[in-house]
Amino acid sequence: MLGIEAKKVTQILPEHLILSKGITWIEGPGYFGKEMRFLAQETTAVLLSENKTVHWIDGAHRFNPSTFFEPLRKRNCSLEEGLRRLYIGRGFTLHQLHALILRVHQETVLTKASLVVVDGLLAMFLDEQIRRYEGRAILRHCLHSLEKLSEQCPVILIDGHASSRLHQQLKCTVKAHSSRHLLGYWKTSRKEILILRNTLDSETLLQLLPKQIDESQSRLEAFTSTGRVAQHQFLLVDSPSTQTE
Q1: 18-183 has which fold?
Q2: How far apart are CA 226 and CA 223, in angstroms?
């Protein structure tokens, strides 16, 4: 048992984990935080269902539109209408990613976007072909631009746990520009309990329940991804750090 049955469990509102303004940095397991992406996806789905626009910059070559199907359906949002309000930018090189981040500031003025997500921000900064001083200069330039943007529109950055000394050094730069840092860990190897630790050293416990997806979506995912897309229903449990199994 996980010792949470005495706690009051309520349906999570994922947008409450994200600041109304400023940069929220989400760090967790998986390839550059891949296993934490559902937090940004659920928040995005909420906004899309409210007829708001979101810009999603893919810096890790993993954007899959089918991952938004279930969150949008849960909110009775037309897939076609919802995804039409989702603006995707893909950077296949560091310099393309840099250009997308600089350009998104102007684009959000036109679209009146309610959120900007940069997925896998540091993925290309670890390329051995990029000189370190050049990479750090570009990263600072990107973060300054996103910091300015976040005064008008909340920004989410997604990254994974440090994989090298250089990765850790780059994280220090990101931390200096972030308004909030959510650090995610799985409580068990079964990946059903997610612990999110924020900058105030308090913790939020998320209980994840696997969701069933219909056969038509399964067939679509076979064409749009190399592996099965994890879909979750999740519940929020506020829990002290002293909680034990």
Answers
A1: Rossmann fold (3.40.50)
A2: 8
Express each pLDDT in 140-159 by its tens digit.
Answer: 999 999 999 999 999 999 99
CA–CA separation, 178 vs 218, rounded Å? 37
Q: Which two tokens stand for residue 55?
A: 């810009």
Low-confidence ranges of the chain (pLDDT < 50): 1-12, 211-231, 233-245
In this structure, are residues 32 and 191 in contact, taking their beta carbons and an 8 Å threshold? no
Q: Provide φ and ψ at 119, rounded to 5°.
A: -95, 125
pTM of the model: 0.80
Separation CA 89–CA 8 (nearest Å):
40
| 80/231 Cα distance (integer angstroms) | 20
* CB contact at 8 A, 102 and 109: no
